[in-house]
C-alpha cells in the first residue's frame, strides 16, 4: 500500500499529519507513470511537477484545500500552457497552447500538480480508446481488453493508481463509460457548471468537462473546486453555486428505473447486482419504480446523437486547416494546403464523422437530417424532464457488458447496443448531472451503475451516490487495491 492508492481525502489527511511529503507523492506518481503498460500517456510534465512539489514541501498544508499537492493527469484535449496538447490527433502535433484551460488554471491555483496528459480517442470522438494517434489504450484489469473511450488514458491512470484523479471530457459518455469498464467514479456535471474554456470543442451543445476519482467524496470535493462561473465560457451558468461537500446521504428518494433500458441488458451478473442494489435501496426506504419509455424513443438516441455531434464536430473543427491551426502540410494554394493538412492529419474515424456532419449540414439536407435530429433530441429531453418532475433520479447499469476484448466488434445495431450502450447520452442531451460508480465484478472485470438527475441537481446525485457506495461497498477501487483484496 502506498499513499497514491488512497483517496484525495485520505492523502490530504496524511499530508496534514506530515506522514508524507508532496514530493514523495509526486515522485511515486512519476515512477508509476514512467512504467505505464497501458498506453495511457501523451505528453509528460515530470520535471515541472517535481519542481512544484519541492516548492510545496516548504509550505504549510492548508486544512481546507484538499487539492494541495495532489498529483493528477488531464486528458489531452484540455489546453495546457507550455505543454504540447494534441487531442490525440496528428493534425495538432507540435501544438503548444499559450494558455491554460480554466479547469487547469483552477487546479494550479489550488496547487494540485499536473503529472501528464492522457491519451484519448482522436479529438474525443469515439468510445473505444483505439482511434487516437498513439494507438490502443489497454485496460489495467486485463491488458487484452479495452477500457473504452474517449477519455481512455485518464481512466487508466486512476484505475492503475498513478494518481487519485484525472480530468476528462464527456460528449456522449466519454467519462462515464470508461469509468464503468475501469471500476471508477466518473462524473459529468450539469451543463454550464464547470467551465469548458480551453477544452478542444467536439460538439459544443453536448460537451462537458468532468473527471475520474475513486470515491464519491473525492468527486464531490473536486466539484466544489471546479464549479465556478467563468466569463470566458459563454455557456457558463450564472446561477449561484452551492457547496456539496460534506455529503449528507441517507435522504429518501424517488427513483425511476427505465424498464426498456434494463430489458435490453442481457448479462446476468450485471442484472443480478443491479437487482440486489434495488432491493437494498428499497430496504433503506427509497421508493424505486420501474417506468416505461417507448423503445422507439430510446432507439433514437444514437442516431440523433451521431448526427448532432458529427454536424457540430464538422463545424467546430473547421479551424484545423493548417493555416489558422494545425500541423501544416505543403501545397501551392490555400486549398491544397488545407486538403493535404486535413487529409494527412485526421484519422479514419474523424473523416467518416466529418462526411456525415457535412451531409447533415448541407442546405439540401439540413431540414431532414440535422434539424430533425435536433427535434428528436428535444422530444427525448422533454420525456426525461417530465419523468424527472415525478422522480428525483433515474438509475441503470452504466454499461451492458464488461470491458470488451481489443478486437471485439460493438456496432451491431441490436437493442443492447442501441439502447443500453447509448443511453448515457440522455444526460448530454438534457445537460443533466450524471455519475458512474462501481457496481460489481464479473470474472475480475468491473462494471458500473449510472445515476442521473435533472439540471442543477448535482448535489442530489452526489448524496445518493454516496448512499449507493455505502451499500455496494466498492470504494477506492483500483487494480492495486483490487489485487491486494483478493
Ligand atoms: N462514444 C461517443 C462518441 O463516439 C462519445 C464520445 C464522447 O463522449 N466524447 O462520440
Structure commentary:
- It is a single chain.
- The protein is an alpha/beta fold and 486 residues long.
- It is built from 18 helices and 13 strands.
- It has helices at 8-16, 22-34, 46-57, 102-109, 152-159, 176-181, 216-226, 259-263, 268-283, 295-299, 301-316, 334-345, 348-361, 370-390, 415-420, 425-430, 458-472, 479-485; strands at 41-44, 71-75, 113-118, 138-139, 142-146, 165-170, 185-188, 208-213, 254-258, 287-291, 393-397, 434-442, 445-452.
- An eleven-stranded mixed β-sheet has the order 1-3-2-6-8-7-12-13-11-9-10, with helices on both faces. A two-stranded antiparallel ribbon has the order 4-5.
- The longest helix is centred in the C-terminal third of the chain and has 21 residues, at 370-390.
- It is globular.
- 53% of the residues are buried.
- The chain binds glutamine (GLN).
- Glutamine is lined by residues 124-127, 150, 170-174, 202, 309.
- Glutamine binds next to loops.
Short description:
It contains 18 helices and 13 strands. It is α/β, with parallel strands linked by helices. It binds glutamine.
The helical percent reads 25-40%
Number of E strands: 13
Mean pLDDT: 97
Major sheet strand order: 1-3-2-6-8-7-12-13-11-9-10
Instruction: Please compute the radius of gyration using only Cα atoms.
Output: 21 Å
Question: What is the SS-derived class?
Answer: alpha/beta
Amino acid at each position: 500500500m502506498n499513499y497514491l492508492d488512497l483517496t484525495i481525502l485520505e492523502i490530504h489527511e496524511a499530508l496534514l499529519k506530515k506522514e508524507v511529503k508532496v514530493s514523495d507523492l509526486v515522485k511515486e506518481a512519476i515512477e508509476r507513470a514512467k512504467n505505464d503498460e497501458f498506453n495511457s500517456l501523451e505528453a509528460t510534465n515530470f520535471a515541472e511537477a517535481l519542481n512544484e512539489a519541492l516548492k510545496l514541501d516548504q509550505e504549510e498544508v492548508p486544512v481546507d484545500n484538499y487539492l494541495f499537492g495532489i498529483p493528477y493527469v488531464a486528458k489531452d484535449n484540455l489546453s495546457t500552457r507550455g505543454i504540447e496538447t494534441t487531442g490525440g490527433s496528428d493534425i495538432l502535433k507540435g501544438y503548444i497552447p499559450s494558455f491554460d484551460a480554466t479547469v487547469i488554471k483552477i487546479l494550479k491555483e489550488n496547487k494540485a500538480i499536473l503529472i501528464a496528459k492522457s491519451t484519448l480517442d482522436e479529438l474525443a470522438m469515439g468510445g473505444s480508446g483505439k482511434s487516437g494517434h498513439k494507438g490502443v489504450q489497454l485496460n489495467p484489469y486485463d491488458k487484452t481488453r479495452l477500457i473504452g473511450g474517449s477519455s481512455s488514458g485518464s481512466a487508466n491512470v486512476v484505475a492503475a493508481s498513478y494518481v487519485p484523479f484525472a480530468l476528462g471530457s464527456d460528449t456522449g459518455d466519454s467519462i462515464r463509460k470508461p469509468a464503468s469498464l475501469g471500476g471508477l467514479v466518473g462524473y459529468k456535471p450539469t451543463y454550464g457548471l464547470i467551465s469548458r474554456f480551453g477544452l478542444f470543442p467536439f460538439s459544443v451543445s453536448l460537451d462537458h468537462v468532468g473527471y475520474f476519482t475513486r470515491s464519491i467524496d473525492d468527486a464531490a470535493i473536486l466539484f466544489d473546486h471546479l464549479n465556478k462561473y467563468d466569463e470566458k465560457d459563454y455557456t457558463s451558468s450564472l446561477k449561484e453555486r452551492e457547496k456539496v461537500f460534506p455529503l449528507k446521504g441517507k435522504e429518501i428518494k424517488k427513483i425511476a428505473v427505465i424498464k426498456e433500458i434494463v430489458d435490453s441488458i442481457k448479462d446476468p451478473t450485471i442484472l443480478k447486482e443491479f437487482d440486489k442494489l434495488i432491493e437494498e435501496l428499497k430496504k433503506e426506504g427509497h421508493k424505486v419504480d420501474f417506468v416505461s419509455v417507448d423503445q422507439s424513443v430510446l432507439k433514437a438516441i444514437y442516431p440523433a446523437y451521431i448526427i448532432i455531434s458529427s454536424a457540430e464536430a464538422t463545424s467546430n473543427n473547421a479551424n484545423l486547416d493548417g493555416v489558422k491551426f494545425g500541423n501544416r502540410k505543403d501545397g501551392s494554394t490555400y486549398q491544397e494546403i488545407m486538403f493535404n493538412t486535413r487529409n494527412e492529419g485526421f484519422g479514419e474515424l474523424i473523416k467518416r464523422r466529418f462526411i456525415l456532419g457535412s451531409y447533415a449540414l448541407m442546405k439540401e439536407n439540413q431540414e431532414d437530417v440535422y434539424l430533425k435530429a435536433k427535434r428528436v433530441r428535444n422530444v427525448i429531453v422533454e420525456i426525461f424532464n417530465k419523468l424527472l418532475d415525478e422522480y428525483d433520479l433515474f438509475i441503470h447499469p452504466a454499461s451492458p457488458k464488461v470491458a470488451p476484448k481489443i478486437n471485439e466488434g460493438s456496432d451491431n445495431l441490436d437493442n443492447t447496443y442501441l439502447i443500453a450502450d447509448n443511453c448515457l447520452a440522455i444526460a448530454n442531451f438534457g445537460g443533466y448531472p450524471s455519475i458512474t460508480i462501481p457496481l460489481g465484478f464479473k470474472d475480475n472485470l468491473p462494471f458500473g451503475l449510472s445515476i442521473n438527475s435533472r439540471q442543477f441537481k448535482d448535489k442530489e446525485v452526489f448524496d445518493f451516490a454516496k448512499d449507493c457506495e455505502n451499500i455496494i461497498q466498492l470504494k477506492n477501487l483500483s487494480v492495486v487495491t483490487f489485487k491486494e483484496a483478493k
